[in-house]
Amino acid sequence: MTQVLPSVSLQINGQPCTVAADATVLQAIRSAGLHVPTLCHLDGLTPVGACRLCLVALEGHPKLEPACVTTVAEGMVVHTHTPELEGYRRMAVELFFAEGNHVCAFCVANGACELQDVAVEVGMDHSRFPYQYPHRHVDASHALFGLDHHRCILCTRCVRMCDEIEGAHVWDVGYRGSACSIIAGLDQPWGEVEACTSCGKCVDACPTGALFRKQDATAEKQPHPERAQQLAAARTDHRWRNQ
Amino acid sequence: MSSEFTPRTITIDPVTRIEGHAKITLHLDESGRIADARFHVVEYRGFETFCEGRPFTEMAGITARICGICPVSHLLAAAKTGDKLLAVQPPPAARKLRRLLNLAQICQSHALSFFHLSSPDFLLGWDSDPAKRNVFGLMAADPELARAGIRLRQFGQQLIEQLAGRKIHAAWAVPGGVRTPMTPETVAWIRQRLPEAEATVRLALKVFQRLLDQQLAEEQQVFGTFDSLFMGLVDDQGQWSCIDGQLRLVDSSGAVVADGLSEDHYASFLGEAVESWSYLKFPYYKPLGYPEGMYRVGPLARLNVCERIGTPWADAELAAFRACNGTTASGGRIAISSFAYHHARLVEIVACLEAIGQLAQDPELQSPHVRSHASLNAREAVGVSEAPRGTLFHHYRVDDDGLITRVNLIIATGQNNLAMNRTVAQIARYYLGPAPLAEGAEIPESLLNRVEAGIRCFDPCLSCSTHAAGQMPLRIELVDATGRRLAERVRD
User: Fold this and answer.
1) Taxonomically, which superkingdom (chain B) (predicted)?
2) Is the C or the N end of chain B the one with fewer CB within 10 Å?
3) Tell me: the pLDDT tens digits for B5-27?
């Protein structure tokens, strides 16, 4: 007999909504047909609340909370688009641009980049913060793929994709502060990491042009963020014969 | 150019550095007569350095951003260099599509140079009000010609958009070929627009020929008429080419100095000198040394190096061009006046339009096989294309992962650098007169007008970026043999 989860009722932007008691606020927002921008979140992967774009205001709660890692509660009153939230969201996107070296003009993901999309969505036309122009490098040691650290926003979607879906755990996060970066294996060139199965799922999950196929030139990246959810669902539903 | 002057420091205002102002110094000899002229380019952009560390597949996208007027030239040179790094031949359809894109680009850029930038000088008069001596003044004086010229440029720009998805900075050409074939809609569009474009260049040739016969005789003599080498691409039959072929150099007598040269070995026959007073390099033909190895590139050079263009109307115009501009010493074969660049541009527009018409009828351009795929196979490559302003070289070295370790770009305006200085010196000598110049000598407005027009013959990128808005900001200094400034004239 299938166990029926209890549900809770809450209000989002004045709109009543009922969802399963273990749902996240982000799931509730989406089930109500509403939208908040996200970057680090990817359906099918464990949420981590890293990018802070999905921050929401909860009435009676003293601080803003990321919707992707906050569980709903009965009677919760959620606001997704207050002036304060919109200001913070734009600031977060400006900081992403100021922190890395994002040059859309010749980027492999130009036109198919989630960072570009959220910049448009939050109305960012320039960054109020000084660009850091960090010295970073491109790891093109893998035969098929490349990692351009200039474009990495440390969303860790690749880390989770490789660990949770592919099970190879090639990627991790190394170093601290402004030196923090995605590392392959034991901080090796990607092409030397034997654990890598060359499946390309990390490239599919990357929201920017940081991970790319080496054959692709400017504006040729075709991302597939939906694959994490497809693969996670297929595994949960035992769609493969050998499971 | 003479080199006996002692080096000296010229202070350049940082404002002029960022605003793209031109600066020219005229150098006098001991007797107070013009010995030398220097066209200073004081903008530094650093593309060659910041490309280092990038994947070579990005080079077409990065280098196309060098210029908003001729991004196609860099795109094609970068894509051709990429072909060689992959060690693949693009499919035949892709080669033809790249050629079509370059024809559209040459057509639009030459229309811009002739109608928007230079024709106001001829049609409104050298000494007319500089504030009105521009395309807007032309619209007031001859609206039909101005409109036709603007529409001709639009034809080239829109053809680029039809093929590549956008007019400026399209990243359509890629290592191994191009992204998409020509559509039947583009073929229909070309057929519909081509007759109007042809009528425009026919009208422009008629107007320009009349001016040459009447009031432009002096300019033909004074605007950079001197012996030099000429370099350009020709196909395997010695015909005019804009993208594929071998390099040929001819001298002012029409003798072929070098033929069948491959861009792969450019460093063996082209040297790049550097002068402390300009960020523009000074390429020269190595066997003759620097600066004797001065050569010109661009429309004038391409018409001088080719045997024929290969299409009937363009060949007739080439014959007329040679009859009008060819020197007696070369048996009418070679035009040595830099002023003939303008006429050469019109002939090249004819060549482009005829070739576009032919390619539109070729069904192969609609083939879906437009890209060859491979991974990195070579570590170093040189690509070449004929930009509207002349031969363009891209030279890349990459590491084992395909990341750029060294870039060298040889740009057309740089290759014309020595000839531009020579042209300015010749114009200054003529318009300042034969008398020795001394402290406080006046630099007349008429000299400024001629000097800027002399530079504009070469259509350097500087004129594109500054002249179209009205007038070209210009500063001329007169410097004596000891390096002392005698006079200055500035026009902002």
Assistant:
1) Bacteria
2) C
3) 443 332 222 222 223 456 788 88
Residue B435 has pLDDT above 80, yes or no: no
Predicted local confidence at residue B469, as pLDDT: 36
User: What does the pLDDT read at residue A16?
Assistant: 96
Q: What pLDDT, in 10s, does the model give residues A55-98?
A: 999 999 999 999 999 999 999 999 999 999 999 999 999 999 99
Closest CA to B117 of B467, B447, B454: B467
Peptide bond into B291 cis (omega under 30): yes
Amino acid at A34: L
Reported confidence tier of residue B369, pLDDT bands at 50, 70, 90: very high
- Residues recorded for chain B: 492
pTM confidence score? 0.89
DSSP-derived 3-state class of residue A119? helix
Q: Residue B371 carries which DSSP code?
A: B
C-alpha distances out from residue A231 to A28, A43, A213, B10, B107, Å: 23, 10, 20, 67, 52
**CA distances, B436 to each of B5, B29, B432, B486, B487 (Å):** 18, 9, 9, 12, 14
- Element at A231 (helix H, strand E): helix A226-236
Q: Tell me which residue has tokens 């529409």.
A: B151
CA distances from A122 to A86, A201, B394 (A): 7, 28, 40
Q: What is the CATH number of domain A7-81?
A: 3.10.20.740
Yes or no: domain A105-236 corresponds to CATH 3.40.50.150: no
Nearest CA in chain A to B374: A215
- Cβ atoms of B302 and B321 within 8 Å: the answer is no
Residues B229/B296, Cβ–Cβ less than 8 Å = yes
Yes or no: say if B301 and B438 are a contact pair by the CB < 8 Å rule. Answer: no
Contacts of B414 (CB under 8 A, 6+ apart): B272, B280, B281, B282, B283
Q: Where are the domains of chain B?
A: 14-41+420-491
Q: What is the pLDDT of residue B483?
A: 79
Q: Is B402 on the interface with A (CB under 8 A)?
A: yes
**Sign of the Cα pseudo-torsion (B413, B419, B421, B427, in order):** negative
Q: Cβ neighbours of residue A123 under 8 Å, at least 6 residues apart? A: A90
Domain spans, chain A: 7-81, 105-236
Determine contact: B144 vs chain A, CB below 8 A. no
- The residue behind tokens 């597939």 is A224
Mean pLDDT of A42-58: 97
Q: Which of B55, B61, B373 minimises the CB distance to A138?
A: B55
Tell if the CB–CB gap between B171 and A218 is shorter than 8 Å: yes
Nearest to A138 among B65, B174, B403 (CB): B403
Share of chain B above pLDDT 70, in %: 91
Annotated binding site of B: 48, 67, 70, 409, 461, 464, 467
CA distance B258 to B256: 6
d(CA A122, CA B91): 44
Return d(Cα B60, Cα B81) in angstroms, integer.
Answer: 9
Beta carbons of A217 and B401 less than 8 Å apart: no
What torsion do the CA atoms of B1, B2, B5, B7 make, to the nearest 10 degrees?
40
Do residues B473 and B466 lie in contact, with contact meaning Cβ atoms separated by under 8 Å? yes
Q: What number is the average pLDDT over the span B227-235?
A: 97
Across the interface, whether the CB atoms of B55 and A143 are under 8 A apart is answered no
Cβ atoms within 10 A of the Cβ of B322, count?
20
State the complex-level ipTM.
0.88
Looking at residue B412, its pLDDT comes to 86
